[in-house]
Write a structure and sequence with these properties.
The complex is a heterodimer of chains A (566) and B (167). Chain A folds into two domains: 42-73 and 274-565, Rossmann fold; 101-240, Rossmann fold. Chain A has 18 helices and 24 strands. Chain A has 566 residues and is of the alpha/beta class. Helices cover 33% and strands 19% of the residues of chain A. The relative contact order of chain A is 0.13. In chain A, the strands form four sheets. Chain A has an eight-stranded mixed beta sheet, sandwiched between helices. Chain B is α+β, with helices and mostly antiparallel strands and 167 residues long. Chain B has a domain at 59-161: Flavocytochrome B2, Chain A, domain 1, CATH 3.10.120.10. Chain B contains five helices and five strands. In chain B, strand 3 (78-81) and strand 4 form a beta hairpin. The longest helix of chain B has 18 residues, at 10-27. The mean pLDDT of chain B is 84. Classes of the chains: A alpha/beta (566), B alpha+beta (167). Chains A and B meet through helix 2, helix 3, strand 2, helix 14 and helix 18 of A and helix 1, strand 1 and strand 5 of B. Strand 2 of chain A pairs parallel with strand 1 (56-57) of chain B, so a sheet runs across the interface. Chain A: One of its GO terms (molecular function) is long-chain fatty acid-CoA ligase activity.
């Protein structure tokens, strides 16, 4: 029969048939599982059912829910700052370049604290101290010591704010570096000074330079204060209440106006809880981690990251770009070299990086440029990575990584390439480099949003979220089109937008307005000066704080926030 | 007996083509993004819902503007207790036109809730001022507050009720 002639089978058929079945199974069933189920990514926030006119509905993190209570502390017993240094944790860890255990740290803190009260003559509850230090162990010790004696500390986020702060809020004492001392003395002379000042200097200073200070200003060495406290009697003050304001962080608003955020112990414990919640429970921050942070300790978020590291027992260091006070006009840029600046310190290779958007951009372009050197393999590897991401999966240990990307990462980051396991980025990331960055790093990347007013992060994405949305072409007037979303509000933050167009919302458009937030990790803002911080047509009572930033909410509950500040 | 290989036979050709095609798909996976953003999670990993979750606008109602929301036309059903307006569309079986408590739809139900009665006498006509509830006993006020709690948990608070000229 003619048909039978066509359907002749032979051994080749059997062979090809087996191969075909294998290939079929391989192609159709070997699809990687998404790291986060896409259902969760479609509903990242819990949305309120009712909204006031001119405002959006209330948005909270989906895991917290509209009825959930906000986490105020990371663990049961952490109520005030001194609880963060746990006494039952013995292993020493490296902070910047010093290897120190919790017991030694507590001792140094109490010694310095006693020295402050006795030797430097500071009075708890009455005096306040301006911390003008670059990030270092001395900063942390001074910070904890001041907090334990309820002496409020001031920090400024940039050196240009120094003279306004000295004029409007003259502190009783200043802690600073030796090389900054002449500048400080000059500023104090320029401003009116009828008050006694004490200056505690880290490092060695020239006594002659101080001589002309006269009786008005008393200059002492940091190490002298600490040893006086260690050798003298230990002074303990009453434990502060978690709602006591223990630090005021001065920062400049986008209009350049001086603002101050009053932060309490409770703000920071809530902030630590929020930072911990950014990473999944199974891969959270633990004592084996090392954290490198690009956020200065003079900012509220930078301090929260440092406190989280201390609570968990990790080694910790900050990058060079956090240095606020440097005499040389060295331009400290946020790039790969900055990340590698941590190699100068003796911390182990960092496992978790808290960096800014510019660092990420620099990292991704360097690694991609390195990887492109093996041209043929790179296009293959890139293609497979993107295909994996389209299924929701990414890993830094796949075949393609071993062939192409490991070498590229090693060339750019050296030893850090193998140790980094999570990266938390703060600041708006542009969609143009988000996907290349995810491919280049292939580790969980958290896109977060922080603000000087809040101790903890305000918004954060799921760490393993690799959704890629199409980037519109260049000519669109929508300012939100080119930035990536920052996810849902943090676990203990609720957010809403004010100043929204009711009609467009009723028609189903995305709400666009000014962001207002509320939560236990957000401090109180007081504007210094005449104009109010932000003109919004809504209540500043009930604890809502305006951040002054424009935001847009997507249909999946994620927020896109424009950078109000750098 | 040797193995016979005949690549020219149709079945073999078809199988070979299929194998080559699949291998090509495995080694060169498609990375083109779909032209339209998927709105279902089954259609793609990078999806986004079609629309935002529905929210109600908090409005100020007067007895006259509240009355149209009686649900007889299949629309939303609202009722007010003590000046708080609840959206009870979810409870159409109770408060809809055929429901046991259908009298209250679109009206101020405060007195009825307090006195635990669904008679028409409990309702104030629309063009008259709101019921001041001054002659209610303490336990009736308590009862009304209990109903307010029940409604707050079960239904959505979507507005407030003010006098006819005040909105």
């Amino acid at each position: 029969m003619a048909i039978a002639d066509y359907l002749v089978t032979d051994d080749l058929t059997i062979l090809l048939g087996l191969i075909a079945v294998t290939v079929f199974l391989l192609h159709n069933l070997y699809k990687p599982q998404p790291l986060v189920h896409p259902i969760l990514l479609g509903r990242q926030s819990d949305v309120g059912r009712v909204r006031n006119p001119g405002e959006s509905a209330l948005y909270r993190n989906y895991n917290t829910g509209l009825l959930g209570r906000f986490a105020v502390r990371p663990e049961k017993d952490i109520n005030v700052l001194s609880d963060i240094v746990k006494s039952d944790f013995d292993t020493p860890r490296t902070l910047w370049s010093s290897k120190i255990s919790n017991a030694q740290l507590k001792e140094r803190i109490s010694a310095f604290g006693s020295g402050l009260v006795q030797f430097a003559g500071l009075v708890p509850h009455e005096d306040n101290v301006l911390l003008l230090l670059n990030d270092s162990l001395e900063f942390l010790i001074s910070d904890f010591a001041l907090a334990s004696h309820s002496i409020p500390s001031f920090t400024i986020s940039s050196p240009s704010l120094l003279s306004p702060v000295l004029e409007s809020h003259p502190p009783s004492a200043i802690i600073t570096h030796a090389r900054f001392l002449p500048h400080i003395l000059e500023l104090i002379y320029d401003a009116h000074e009828s008050e006694h000042h004490t200056i505690i200097v880290v490092g060695d200073f020239d006594p002659n330079a101080v001589g002309k200070a006269g009786d008005v200003i008393k200059v002492v060495k940091w190490t002298d204060v600490e040893s006086a406290g260690a050798n003298g009697e230990k002074i303990t003050s009453a434990t502060p209440s978690p709602d006591d304001v223990f630090t005021v962080s001065f920062f400049a608003s986008d209009t350049g106006q001086l603002q101050s955020a009053h932060l309490t112990h409770a703000n920071f414990t809530a902030g630590i809880a929020a930072v911990r919640a950014m990473l999944p429970l199974s891969k959270g921050i633990g004592s084996l981690d090392t954290i490198a942070s690009a956020h200065s300790l003079s900012t509220s978020f930078g301090r929260t990251v440092a406190y989280t590291a201390i609570l968990e027992g990790c080694s910790f260091a900050t990058l060079d770009s956090t240095q606020l006070f440097h005499i040389e006009d060295a331009m400290l840029e946020n790039n790969v070299a900055d990340i590698l600046s941590a190699t100068k310190l003796s911390i182990p290779s960092p496992t978790i990086l808290f960096i800014k958007a510019a660092h990420l951009q620099s990292l991704s372009s360097s690694i991609t440029a390195e990887a492109k050197k093996s041209f043929l393999l790179y296009s293959f590897a890139n293609r497979h990575k993107l295909a994996g991401m389209a299924e929701g999966f990414i890993t830094n240990d796949s075949l393609w990584d071993r062939m192409v990307f490991h070498a590229a990462r090693f060339a750019v980051l050296g030893d850090y390439a193998n140790s980094i396991r999570t990266v938390v980025v703060s600041g708006p990331i542009e969609s143009s480099y988000l996907t290349p960055a995810r491919v280049a790093l292939s580790v969980p990347l958290v896109n977060s949003h922080t603000h000087p007013l809040a101790a903890g992060p305000l918004f954060a994405t799921y760490p393993s979220d690799v959704q890629t949305f199409p980037v519109p072409s260049q000519h669109t007037t929508d300012p939100f089109a080119h930035i990536a979303h920052v996810g849902s509000p943090s676990t203990n933050v609720e957010a809403k937008l004010v100043g929204v167009n009711d009609e467009s919302i009723e028609n189903g458009m995305d709400p666009v307005g000014v962001l207002m937030v509320r939560g236990p990790s957000i401090g109180r803002v007081l504007g210094v000066g005449e104009a109010s911080y932000v003109e919004v047509p809504s209540s500043s009572d009930e604890g809502w704080v305006g951040t002054g930033e424009k935001a847009k909410i997507l249909a999946n509950g994620a927020f896109k926030i424009l950078a109000g500040r750098k | 007996m040797g193995l016979s290989f005949d690549l020219g036979s149709p079945i073999n050709t078809a199988l070979l083509l299929y194998i080559l095609y699949s291998i090509q798909r495995i080694f060169f996976p498609t990375i083109s993004t779909p032209s339209e953003l998927p709105h279902e999670f089954k259609s793609g990993y990078s999806w986004i819902p079609e629309s935002h979750p529905p929210t109600l606008l908090y409005k100020t109602y007067t007895p006259k503007t509240l009355e149209p929301f009686h649900g007889r036309d299949g629309g939303r059903i609202l009722l007010a207790i003590n000046g708080i307006v609840f959206d009870v569309t979810a409870g159409r079986s109770f408060y809809g036109p055929d429901g046991m408590y259908g009298n209250f739809a679109g009206r101020d139900a405060s007195r009825g809730m307090a006195k635990q009665s669904f008679d028409m006498e409990m309702l104030t006509p629309i063009d008259q001022p709101l019921d001041k509830l001054t002659d209610l006993q303490a336990d009736e006020i308590e009862n009304m507050k209990g109903w307010i709690d029940h409604f707050s948990n079960k239904y959505i608070i979507c507005g407030e009720l003010v006098e006819n000229g005040a909105a």
